[in-house]
# Entry
Amino acid sequence: MIFSDKGYTSSQEEIGPYLAFGNGIAISKHRKPISKLPIMMKGSQPTDGGGLLISESEYNGIKQDYPSLMKYVYKYIGSKDFINGNKRYALWLTENDYKQVKDNPEIKRRMKIVYESRTNSTKKSTRQLAKTPYRFDEIRREQSNCTIISPAISSGNRLYVPMGIVGNDVVVSNTAQTIYNANLWILGLLELKMFTIWLSNIGGKFKTDYIVSASLVYNTFPVPNLSTRRKNEIEELVWKILDIRDEEGGTLADLYGSPLAEKNPKPMNPRLLAAHQELDEVVDRAYRDRPFKDDNERLSLLLNMYSQKVNEEK
# Structure
C-alpha cells in the first residue's frame, strides 16, 4: 500500500491500516473535535504529596472535628473510583477561601504536607507552586449544567465504556476525562457500540486496556447530523441506562462485567445490555438507513466519514 503524506492510498477500495475498507486512511490526532462536539479534557491534577486528597476515614474525621471545613471538601473521582465505586475526597480552596481557614489546625497540617512535597520536587514549575499549597497543580474544573465523566483507560474486556455524569460537588481527577456543559445526548453517543469499535481500532492500548484519548479517539469520532427528535430519543435512552444502573445497584465494574475476557468472563447485566442495544439500534439508523452486517462494516463507514470530514475541513 502506498501512503501519501496525508495518509491516503491511491486506491478508493483498499483495506487500510485498521484492516477494514476505508480509503486506506490513517487517523491522526486532532486538537478539536471534527464533529463539532464540546471539548473533552483531563480532570484536575493535585501534585500535592497527599495534602489535598482526603480518604473516607479522614473525611469522617474532618466532618466530626472541623465541620466548618466541610464546605471546602468535594468528592474526588478518578477512573478507578468511578468504575469501582471508591470514595475519595479533595480539599478545594480558592485564594479567598484559604485566607478564611489558614489558621485551622487541619489546614495548617495539610498545607505543610503540600509545601514540603512541592518544594522537594525536581520540577521547577512544581517548586514554584509551593507558594500556593492550597491550590491544585493543574485546574480544569468548571461549573457545569452537565458534566460527563469518562475513564481515561477502560478495560478491553467490556462491550461498552462505562461513562456517566457528575455534579458540581465533584472534582474530577486527571486520571479521568471530562466534558463540561455537555448535552446528555453526547453521553449517548459515547455509550454506543459504534464508539467502542472506534476506540478499540483507533485508540492506543495500555496492556489490554483501551486509552480513551481526547485527541486521537474522541476528537476524531465521526458523528452524523442528528435531528432534534433523534437527540431527544437518545437522551431518553441515556436516562433509561442511568436509571437501570441505579436500580440494579453495584459498581460499574459489576454491572458491565468482562464478557470479552478470555479467562473467566463475567456477563454484562442483562437489563443494562438490552438498554445499550436499544440505544445502538436508534443511533445506527442515524448513521445509515439499513442495518450493519458486522462490526467491520461499522468501522468502514466510520473511516469513510472521517475521511470526508477531514477533506471538508481542508
Q: What stands out?
A: The chain has two domains: 48-129, 147-313. The longest strand covers residues 73-77. The first helix runs from residue 56 to 65. Residues 48-129 form one domain.
